[in-house]
Amino acid sequence: MSILAVIAVPGSVQAAVPGIPPVRAWMMLPFLALLLAIAIAPFANRRWWERHYPKVSLGLGFAVLSYYSFLIDYRRMLETGLDYFSFISLIGSLFVAAGGILIHTERRATPALNTLILGVGAVLSNILGTTGASMLLIRPFIRINRQRFSGFHLAFFIFAVSNIGGALTPIGDPPLLIGYLKGVPFHWTILSIWRIWLLALILLLALFYALDSISYRRWNALHQHPAAPGRIHVHGGRNFVFLLIILAAVFTTTPAREIIMIAAAAAAYRFARKDALRANEFSFEPIREVAILFAGIFATMVPALDWLNLNAPRFGLTTPGQFYWSSGLLSSVLDNAPTYLNFLSAALGLHGLALDDPGQIALLIARHSRFLLAISVGCVFFGAATYIGNGPNFMVKSIAEHLGIKCPSFFGFILRYSLPILSPLFLLIWFVFFR
To answer: In sequence order, what are the residues at sequence separation of 6 or more whose Cβ sits closer than 8 angstroms to the Cβ of residue 52?
Structure first.
C-alpha cells in the first residue's frame, strides 16, 4: 500500500504503537495550514504577514499543543518541546557566534570564486555542521555578490552548503548525528556516502558555474568593471573558539548541552568585535523569525510524525529505492531528524531487527546497508528542496532578507530551483545507486 493510499483512508485510527498515541488524519490540518500560510501569505500580502506571522504560527502551534496535552498525552508535547529547545539552542548559538566573524575582501566575485566558496562551504559543512558553515559564509557570500546577487545564488548556497554538503559525517546534518548516536559507526557515513556526495556536488557546482558565468557576462557587459584582486581578511577570529565549543556540545548527552551552547553564544556576543557585528549588519531579528515560525512547525508537525510512525508498516516499502524516495520526500516538509529515525526503525523492522540496539544496527549495515544508505542520503539531500526542509535553509533566507536581498517565495523557490535542478539530480542518484 502506498503512502497516498494510507492517507486516503478517511478518519482511520491506527493500531497502538508503544509510546505513540492514535492519530487521525484531520489532526494534520494545522500543520498543512501553517505550511500554506508560510508559502502564500508573504506573496499575497507581505506587510500583513510580517505583522501577524507570530499570531499565525504560535496560534496554530498552541491549538495542537492544547489538544495533545489535554486529550492525548502531554508527555508527547513535552518531548517535542525539549526537541525544539535543543534545535533553537543550536541554531541560535551558531547564528550569534558566526555573526561576530567578519570575512571581508575587496575582490568582486567571479564565477570561479563563487564556485570555490560553495565547494569550500560544502566541505566545511562536515566539520562545522550545515548550520555552522551556513551562518559563517552566507554574509560574505552575499557581500561579494551584492551588485548581482539573485535567486539562484541563494538556492545553490542552500543546496550545496546548507544541505548536500553535510552528508559526509555525523557532524554534518542532524539525521546523520541521530544515526551515529543510535550506533551507526562514524566512519561508515564517510566511506559509504562519499561517492554519492562527490557526484552530487560536482554536478551542482558545474551547473552553478555555468549559470553564474552567464549572469557575470551580462552584468559585466553593462558595468564593464574588471575584477579587482584583493586579499581576504578575517576579523573576530576569537569567535571560532566559541563555534567549536558549541559544536563540541552537540556530542554531550548531559542536560548541560543547551546551557553550554547558550553560554558560549552569550560569551561570543559579549566579546565580539563591535566593528565586525556592524559590518555584518548583525541583529537578532532573523533568529527571532526562525524561532517563532519553527515553534509553530515543531508543534503542528507532531501529529504528522506520529501518523508516519504508526503507518510506516503499511507503506509497503521493501526496496532501498522506495526508502530513498519516501524518506526524502517527507524530509522536505518534515523535520528530517525524526523522519530519519522513523524510516530507520521501519528498515530494521522489515528485516526483523529492532532500534536502540547497536548490535542490531550493525546487522543492518552488514546485511542490508543499502537501506541505511538510502535513508541517510534521502533525508539529507531532500532537505534542500524547501525552505523548511532543514533548519539552516530558513536561517539563510531570513539573513538574506535582513540584508536587503529579495528572496524567492516559498513556492517560487520550489518551482524555479528545486524542481528543475534537484529533481533530475535526485533521479540520477536513484538510478545509479538505488534502482
So the answer is: none
pLDDT value for 313: 66
- Over residues 149-165, mean pLDDT: 95
Task: For residues 388-401, give the mean pLDDT.
Answer: 89
Please list, in sequence order, all residues whose beta carbon lies within 8 angstroms of the beta carbon of residue 378, skipping any fewer than 6 positions away: 323, 324, 325, 326, 327, 328, 331, 343
Q: pLDDT per residue over 288-337, tens digit each?
A: 988 998 899 889 988 887 877 776 667 778 899 999 999 999 889 877 88
Domain ranges of the chain: 44-434
φ and ψ of 235, to 5 deg: -115, 145
Q: CA 62 to CA 69: how far, in whole Å?
A: 10
25-39, 233-247, 260-274, range with greatest mean pLDDT: 260-274
CB within 8 A of 317, min separation 6: which ones?
323, 326, 346, 350
In 3D space, the residue among 321, 340, 319, 317 whose CA is nearest the CA of residue 429 turns out to be: 321
Q: Which of 135, 127, 129, 121 is nearest to 174 (CA)?
A: 129
pTM of the model: 0.84
With the CA atoms of 323, 411, 292 and 126 taken in that order, what torsion angle do they form, in degrees rounded to the nearest 10?
Answer: 50
Contacts of 232 (CB under 8 A, 6+ apart): 103, 104, 105, 107
Q: Is 233 exposed, middle or buried (0-12, 13-18, 19+ CB in 10 A)?
A: exposed
By C-alpha distance, which of 267, 242, 298 is closest to 62? 298
Separation between Cα atoms, residue 255 and residue 427, nearest integer Å: 41
In the structure grid, which three cell numbers stand for residue 116, read together?
A: 570555490
SS3 content of the chain, % helix, strand, coil (to 5): 75, 0, 20
- Alpha carbon distance 260, 256 (integer Å): 6
Averaged pLDDT score across all residues of the chain = 86
Q: Residue 2 pLDDT > 50, yes or no?
A: no
Cα dihedral value 292, 293, 296, 302, nearest 10: -130
Residue 425 clears pLDDT 90, i.e. is over it: yes
Helical ranges in 100-185 per DSSP H? 111-144, 151-160, 174-182
Using only the alpha carbons of the chain, give its radius of gyration. 21
Helix (H) or strand (E) holding 161: none
